[in-house]
Structure to design on (191 residues):
């Protein structure tokens, strides 16, 4: 645990870590989000994933019993937004976790995002699209494959173009950065 002048955060973190270790997970989404925020601040990726895996399994089992026959994809319904948030956070913690092998962490994160419509052209969730862009950009930074950079550009642009209000410029700025990288690369190749 990090030492600070105020011991309250450390005490809160210790309580959260003990609860997760004992599999004493909170029931309310508000409390789950508070736990996740603390774990993210402290870069406790493994414990955050444990908590989120439990929550996601719970949502999945509920969804299986509620099998609605509708044209709307499950991840687009209002009722599914907490599960979508959980899945987004899982993907974030996986691709950010330096303790996992790089190829595994990027591919696992992208697989999770695909479960919530990453590649679906009707997906307007800028967070899902932006996380896809970020995972592909990290993958490109690690392995240097141009196709990963192109994928990152696609998802960042989609986040910005499909839902600029939710995106708040994040996807747009990252898309511009990637275009700059690609332009610089093209200049160097042309020389």
């Amino acid at each position: 645990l990090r030492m600070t002048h105020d011991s309250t955060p450390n005490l809160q973190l210790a309580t959260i870590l003990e609860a997760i270790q004992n599999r004493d997970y909170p029931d309310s989404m508000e409390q789950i989000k508070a736990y996740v925020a603390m774990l993210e601040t402290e870069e406790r990726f493994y414990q955050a994933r444990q908590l989120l895996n439990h929550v996601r399994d719970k949502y999945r089992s509920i969804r299986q019993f509620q099998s609605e026959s509708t044209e709307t994809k499950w991840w687009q319904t209002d009722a599914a937004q907490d599960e979508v948030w959980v899945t987004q956070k899982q993907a974030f913690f996986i691709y950010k976790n330096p303790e996992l092998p790089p190829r595994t962490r990027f591919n696992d994160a992208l697989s999770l995002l695909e479960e919530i419509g990453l590649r679906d052209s009707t997906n307007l969730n800028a967070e899902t699209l932006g996380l896809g862009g970020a995972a592909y950009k990290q993958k490109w930074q690690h392995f240097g494959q141009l196709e990963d950079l192109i994928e990152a550009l696609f998802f960042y642009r989609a986040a910005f173009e499909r839902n600029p209000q939710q995106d708040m410029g994040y996807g747009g700025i990252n898309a511009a950065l990637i275009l700059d990288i690609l332009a610089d690369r093209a200049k160097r190749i042309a020389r």
Observations:
- The chain is about 70% helix and 0% strand.
